[in-house]
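Troubleshooting log. The previous structure file for this entry was overwritten by mistake, so regenerating from the original sequence record. Sequence copied from the archived sheet and checked twice against the printout by T.R.
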Amino acid sequence: MNDAIFQLISQLDISKIENHRKDLLQPLQEYVSQKLKENKEINLNFICTHNSRRSQLTQAWAKVIGDHYGLNINSFSGGIEVTACNERTIASLRRMGFEINEPGGENPHYEAKYDDNNPIVLFSKIHDDLPNPTKNFAAVMTCTHADENCPFIPGAEKRISLPYEDPKAFDNTLEEAKMYDERSLQIATELKYVFSGLSI
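Regenerated output below.
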């Protein structure tokens, strides 16, 4: 793991997470803990409407912070319609310390590197498109719209509601970068709380 991301994770303060957020995080923590106890594969599919912002951030941070704690987390993301991974999401990940390869195109497959191993590939897709799992996974709903409008996720053995506020509200404002980074750091902090508190 590169130094910038390692230092960032080390500095995330999980003590600032409010109790109502811990309640939302508990089912995810319990799901991952149970998989570890059973020595089974851990597949997490983070889902929001456009698979463009919040679900992409959670996919990236779940993989990185899982690795930080020595957990083999298979993280995925998807939506209920295809758009593109938003360039502001990618810009925020770059500010966090990821090395980004931008291939271009209508729905680019960004490669986000955080170590010398395989990069995380981020692109917009439907929740059951390849390479996403079709069984034995938890569907983690990261936006209320997808949670309400996609009541059934085929193949999911667990459905977890974990909504985040959409930084899209600040697009093309002076606070754009700040709010994307704030959301990214919130997601990273909460996933650190989940993975650091596991009982195996």
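The chain has a mean pLDDT of 94. Archived copy saved in two places this time.
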